[in-house]
Amino acid sequence: MNVLAPLAEALAAAAALVARVAAGRSLSAELERADRDPGAHAAQADLCYGTLRRYGRSQAIVAALSRHAGTTDRLVEALLWCSLYALESGRYAEYTVVDQAARACVAMQRSGAKGYVNALLRNFLRARGGLEARLGTDEVAHYWHPKWWIERIRADYPLSWEQVLAAGNTHPPMCLRVNARRASLQGYVERLAAEGIAASRVGPQALLLEKPVPVERLPGFAEGEVSVQDAGAQRAAGLLELHAGQRVLDACAAPGGKSSHILESANVELTALEVDAARCAGIARDQERLGLRGQVRTADCTALDTWWDGAAFERILADVPCSASGVARRHPDMKWLRRDADIAVFAARQARILDALWRTLASGGKLLYVTCSVFAEENDALVGAFAARTPGARRVPLPDGAAAQLLPGPEHDGFFFALLEKPA
Question: Is the pTM of this model over 0.90?
């Protein structure tokens, strides 16, 4: 394979995507729209994700080294961010990155910027030892998170805030959930081993892969023997304490992993709600692949008159829309697209969802509140406020005895769980 030309092309393509993200677009949406061949996909995606993980650092480096701060073409600036990541990733020789970044200028119709890009990258290579001391005093550059995000994490986790931020910058793990109705955990481990895929057990049906692999390589995936689901997310089904015959509601069901896990765990009568029709179709397809059957409905869970027939649910899963701050390493653009004021908006919506769903919970029933957030305003603070204003609502210990807040780490993402019980 010719390494040089593909890198220049990948840098140019990644710079275009990163520039659009910097202007407020979603990376995942932009990647879906991108017209690229499979061979270019891996390099382009790596450049985009890697650049956005360390976006604050790259911005600070360009600002420190550029003589044209504030006037640089945004596309050229994005090329510099991507090139700095390529230099620091260790995947390419330094001279290759500098050369290919200059060539990418031509592909981007920015030939006039070749000298500027070349000079800045070479200056970085010469001066990076001294730059580190300067960057260490800039929290955004040092921790790779926006200032407001750093301040929230520091306030919520005064003893471990740096570890939380560091974990948010790592590559996420790939975890599988073995469908207990179609395969055994040990048997599936052996099948993976036969395919040269190393895995370790991290939960009742959860396997952590030593290295991520495409789903096409997973034996039995198409036949519904296994799904990709984070080990933290898999905790939800067990905390619901499911029993055969229960009426169960998954109120905010997309993308559907928790709904499917519920149906794999017990013979319950499940209703899965999702406001987006296209995502409902995805939930139904996944259940079909797994050999499961639940009722999937397109509805806003807070608009009870549009979907609820008045029959109460013994168990409710409220996996509410949130900041997704616990899974930011999977969506690094989100750190830079979110704003501090967004958290209060999420919390207000979460409170409305809890208030509505409580009306549909049976006496003696339990509601599991879940977020993939690490911000207290969406988690402990919100659940505490709900319990205080709702007569009879009682927060009960989690059945597995583990902490309510899972922080992102090597085995799982960040999740929060709270179990609320309605008096009989």
Answer: yes
